[in-house]
Amino acid sequence: MVSSELKAVHSHSAKGTVLNFNLGPDEISSIVDSLIHEGKKIQDAVAAQTNPTFDNVIVPLATRENEQSAQYLVVTFLQNISTDKGVRDASTSAEERLNDFEVESNMREDVYKVVRAVFDNKSEMGRVGPEDRRLVEKMELQYRRNGLALNREDRRRLGDINKEILDIGVHFSRNINEGDGRILLTRDELEGLPDSYFEGRETGAEDGVEKYVVTTKYPDLVPAMQLAKREDTRRRLLHVEETRCPENIPLLQRAARLRLQAAQLLGYKTHAEFVLEENMAKTPQAVAAFEADLRKRLNALADSEIAEIESLKKADKSAAGETYTGLYIWDFRYYSNLVKERKHNIKDEEVKKYLPMTEVTRGVLNIYQEMLSLRFVKVADAPVWHPDVEMYEVWEATEATFVGHFYLDLYPREGKYNHAAVWPIRPRFERSDGSHEYPVAAMVANFPKPTPSTPALLKHSDAVTFLHELGHVFHSICSVTKWGRLHGTSTEHDFVEAPSQMLENWGWEPSVLRRFAVHYQTGEPIPEDLVKRLVAAKNEGAGLSNLRQVFFGLFDMAIHNTTDSNVDVKAAYSRLREEVGRFKNGDADSWGAATFGHMMGGYDARYYGYLWSLVYSADMYATRFQKEGVRNAQTGLDYRHEILQPGGGRDASVSLERFLGRKPNNEAFLRSIGLRSD
Questions:
Q1: DSSP code of 527?
Q2: Residue 377 three-state SS
Q3: N or C: which terminus of the chain carries fewer CB neighbours within 10 A?
Q4: 127: how many CB neighbours lie within 10 A of its CB?
Q5: Residue 11 pLDDT > 60, yes or no?
Q6: Contact at 8 Å (CB) between 605 and 556?
């Protein structure tokens, strides 16, 4: 059911059905009208069935999801990448309208009645295949978790709550995207930053003095926090970052309260209890135990790391004739980086020279091609949303079988999503005639742009991020499911990061690095000694950096695993960051929670999953790839077939056991961050 407004366009150079991202506000609005009209028509027809079966109830509902998903995802994706504010606004409005419609759809008692009839029909459930049965089970559970077992008044209240939460999420994310901070600083105030940082940088006058504009976008913020020698500069810049989007604090406060109300209407004690029912962890108690055990182990590592950092800062203060008053949050990146430089003689500026974006892109794509037995073809004159964007076809490596498309949008610009993430734009699904649709995914990032004198150069951490995000891309591209609802990354939330996290290990393999790390001027490969130093520094600061992740997870649970409807999100963030992260916040008022996009971006009561899934990623890597070789083609195919291909079509625990040959354990994870598994 393709609306007239969103026709498939065919590039003369691209294989398969190519999506159209060149939409104006009126076209977006018209597409939404069509999606809602067609959706209602299908639901009405399904609800009217007097003899509900899989074929006349489940198939039409799931086919609607299959066929409409790309339209839905394109019109809502545009708010994150369009250069036209009018289009971004229209995309935001589209998401609000579609969210409202989905809430209404999930609350339709008449549709649930026929879905439940199929679910309860043992004969009907027995005749369909495993993925079909899973689809019915997921549908029935979704309706039940949306309150269809409640009385009419409670259902109405729950529907209103869910609509408001979704609206809050749209506005919260948009505020972050549109609300970049900026500060004017002199070259002296930015002492420690390399010359390349200033090339082509915007300037502005303040009090008659020409200064450099530093924004809170990652390519500006992170190098300054790592390299600026003056503590006051780091403090001021971080304050700009952490006082963005004040309007988001009451939004998050309201969302936490509404989530609790919704959970309690459904009979759960807390929002976390409601969320975790569908995850591998299952209960808040399991998450709390995991976080507490890991925090205890990490504190032992962090003790020595804090001592090292403290000695460096005390020496700096003594040399400047100033009083040492403690370690502050704006010291974390700077002194962690300084320890790495001094202990391992590793400087980002040295490493960056060997990581030009063009070579990293080529090398990383080659890694994925080899490992997954695929072949990528860059599309010439591709129909993309910005000149920086690249589009690729994906083919089977040894046969003329087309697999799908992916897009790379790698550089920052005004109004663009300001972190790194992947959007599955279209799932692969089967049609009734036996044909199938091809999957599409887009990676959006904010890597450093070229300067007037150098090409785009990446830090090693950027290259690792590239590997990670492409892991999500190929989870979508390689998944083979009958139904779009179960495709790709539609797995348990505390498993979804594991496939991408596992691929980060390739960024630390000397043999892999040497394949694409070459000097941007001479073409010389990265020196072996530098690679050794880089790998040796891998776990430097692992205690503190992982405690930071524990903090985010504990904050998430503090506001979502509570029966207190008035929990103070701003105060909880500040208190826990200081207690868990072990750096002082300082005296200035700030609200870092306002830009913690995960809390309104699908990670509510789920953030622990980043560390939880590391257990699985480390086990997969150590058990198979490290033992059998990172370039072992059969291991790569096993990974593709057992981990990526099933998507959410079966439990992640089954996929893990089939790939590992046993149940997973945490031994490899603890070793990977320098801890013993005792």
A1: P
A2: strand
A3: C
A4: 12
A5: no
A6: yes
Max CA pair span of the chain: 85
Whose CA is closest to 59, among 175, 139, 5? 139
Positions annotated as catalytic residues are 469
Which tens digits make up the pLDDT trace of 628-661? 999 999 999 999 999 999 999 999 999 999 999 9
Q: What is the pTM of this model?
A: 0.89
pLDDT of 534 > 60? The answer is yes
Residue 207 has pLDDT above 50, yes or no: yes
Rounded to 5°, angle at Cα 298 from 586 and 307: 55
CA dihedral 343, 347, 350, 354 (to 10 degrees): 90
Whether 312 and 335 have beta carbons less than 8 Å apart is answered as yes
Q: Which of 206, 267, 199, 304 is nearest to 540 (CA)?
A: 304
Report whether pLDDT(523) > 50. Answer: yes
Burial class of 676 by CB neighbour count within 10 A (0 to 12, 13 to 18, 19+): exposed
Residue 16 has pLDDT above 80, yes or no: no
> Torsions phi, psi of 27, nearest 5?
-65, -40
Residue 313: both structure tokens together: 């800062």
Scanning the structure block, which residue is given the tokens 């036996």?
434
Distance (Å) of CA 408 to CA 115, 175, 384, 411, 466: 39, 24, 10, 9, 10
- In the DSSP assignment, the letter for residue 634 is H
pLDDT in tens, 489-505: 999 999 999 999 999 99
CA–centroid distance for 586 within its chain? 30
CA dihedral over 329, 330, 332, 333, signed as positive or negative: positive
User: Token pair of 667, please?
Assistant: 């031994």
Give strand pairing partners of 457.
356
**Helix, strand or coil, per DSSP, at residue 155:** helix
3-state helix, strand, coil in the chain (%, to 5): 60, 10, 35
User: Within the chain, how many helices (H) and strands (E) appear?
Assistant: 27, 10
- Cα 8–602–672 angle (5° rounding)? 110
Contact in structure between 404 and 391 (CB atoms under 8 Å): no
Give the pLDDT confidence score for residue 232 in this predicted structure. Answer: 97
How many other CB atoms are found less than 10 A from the CB of residue 168?
19
Half-sphere exposure of 498 (CA within 13 A, CB side): 30
* Matching residue, tokens 């000149």: 387
Question: Would you give the DSSP letter of residue 490?
Answer: -
Among 541, 516, 517, 505, which residue's Cα sits nearest to residue 344? 541
Three state DSSP letters for 73-126? HHHHHHHHHCCCHHHHHHHHHHHHHHHHHHHHHHCCHHHHHHHHHHHHCHHHHH
In a 13 Å sphere around the CA of 124, the CA atoms on its Cβ side amount to 19
Q: Tell me the average pLDDT across 91-114.
A: 96
437 or 2, higher pLDDT:
437
